[in-house]
Amino acid sequence: MSLHTLTIHQLREKLRRGNVSAREATQSLLDRIQSVDGKLKAYLWLDAEDALAQADAIDRSGIAKNGKLLGGVPVAIKDVINVEGQPCTCASKILKGHTSVYDAFVVQRLREAGAILLGRTNMDEFAMGSSTENSSWGITHNPWDLERIPGGSSGGSAAAVAADEAFAALGSDTGGSIRQPASLCGCVGFKPTYGRVSRYGLVAFASSLDQVGPFTKDVADGALMLRVLAGHDPHDTTSVPQPVPDYTAGLGKGVKGLRIGLPKEYFIDGMDREVEAAVRAAIKKLQDLGAEIVEISLPHTDYAVAVYYLIATAEASANLARFDGVRYGARVTGEDVIDMYGKTRGAGFGPEVKRRIILGTYALSAGYHDAYYVRAQKVRTLIRQDFEKAFERCDVIVTPTSPEVAFRIGEKTDDPLKMYLCDIFTISVNLAGICGVSLPCGFTNDPRLPIGLQVLGKPFGEETVLGVAHAYEQATEWHKARPNL
Amino acid sequence: MRKPVARRYDTFLNMANDTNQFDVGYVAHLARLHLSDSEKQKISAQLKDTLAYVAKLNELDVSKVEPTAHATPLANVLRRDEVRPSIDRATILKNAPEQARDLFIVPKIVE
Question: For A173-189, how does the pLDDT look when each residue is reduced to its tens digit (9 = 90+)?
Fold first, then answer.
């Protein structure tokens, strides 16, 4: 019996009973990583001694045996979230050698819950991308087919959880960066409502869209992680002081009588046929379980990608101004301070980040601000209103997470626009600020690649979303499938 | 030598709405981002496509729509202006590319 294959709730049971120690749980992951991460490259950094020392401290303190939610459970962290004393590079050369000097709020929460901070996972540089190919430190491979991408931007976290290299991992989701890789790797990825989880200590990409969330092997673990991560933080003024329900206690209520909305705009031409078939079958399953299916419309869906790429790049161009070679990271010297900024940033940022800084700066510049940025913000209002109207008629919305399964490494690297369209089903959620989850709902035939189902909820409707996802999961076997590595 | 900013800005406005002449060099200067000539060419071509794509937002009449800046239900979040402990100077300076006497060192800014 190998510990690394367990879910958190299975592992916690063993830890609580004292059948397993935090050290053994940690060692099982280290062994697993040792044997498969050479092929996957999900991790960027890992300090085995440090992880085992954290585990020993937890074993000594007795935390693993008490009621702490994550006592003795190792968790992997996307390289965009600060863990004091560990490197944080956002997979960018501009932060090479940077060591975090403080814990992000979510990391404080993990520590308080008794988790072990295992290591740093790969990502697209500054979370900009849908394939993890934009990492400055190399490509992460999809555990189901090593010649394919794991999705992005949190590709390392998704691959690590799917391959049993972590019991859970943190990611960040600005336009789908948790849900899309979860879909492509066959695990559960949850994007909370904007304001539900503090962004303090998450390196900012697009501040009005970013949200931290968990990758897990099943929905119950997702609920458990969310319970740990959610809550008000005075350090993030956009975090909402609303009580956090016990998400795990809400599971198991079923879907009887719930109204599930199907947006007609999300079942489009050009979608992979097997993806569509799997999602339709999942909807039928939910109907069989007692849910009512309601056809809805989100009429401005077609504009979401355009809105997103103006707003996200505009915010990114402002947020990334801080990487100037003065306070942290690499520096390239210049003839004066302006020249130093330009050279440092020119040498430190990769192609996609540069492209987005240019687009965002352009969208915010004098003469173009109203035509691009403000117009995009207005269409964002229309997209939010679409969801508000839709949720008058249904309790959750169900869609495919991605129009396609994992594509081949290199397939879309030369065509940014094609890459941006990968996020067509996930982006609106961030613009509207609502919550959503991706969970496994089937596989393509040949090659065998995971397909994801997306369940979306109202603002602060996490309990309902988790309930629907859990009911579907319990009625199917997809979440138990594991890649052969 | 860099071109004077004022002149570049005129050129920039003259190509208003003509994304075919997107002046990537000027935007890169605004962003304090050094790009090589081949990077400029590539980004310019790719952004032409992206800008053509986002032009679809012009199809919508948004004259009566308020912009959305963020999705949080909160407004005007205030706190007391209190002195509180923060990360100490020595810790923060550990990541500095160049530092001395408790300060970040940068090239001379004022002559």
Answer: 999 999 999 999 999 99
ipTM for the complex?
A: 0.92
What's phi and psi for A154, nearest 5 deg?
Answer: -85, 45
Residue B10 predicted with pLDDT over 60: no
* Cα distances (angstroms) measured from residue A275 to each of A145, A253, A343, A438, B71: 17, 28, 45, 13, 30
Q: Which of A301, A340, A362, A421 to mutate to test the interface with B (most CBs of B within 10 A)?
A: A362
Query: Best mutation site among A333, A341, A358 for testing chain B: the one with the most B CBs within 10 Å?
Result: A358
Domains and CATH numbers, chain A: 3-257 (3.90.1300.10)
Q: Output DSSP code: residue B4.
A: P
Say what the pTM is: 0.95
Taking only the tens place, the pLDDT of each residue in A263-312 is 999 987 778 999 999 999 999 999 999 999 999 999 999 999 999 999 99
Question: Sign of torsion, CA A425 A430 A431 A434?
Answer: positive
Given an 8 Å threshold on Cβ–Cβ distance, is B65 in contact with A381? yes
- Active-site positions of A read 78, 153, 177
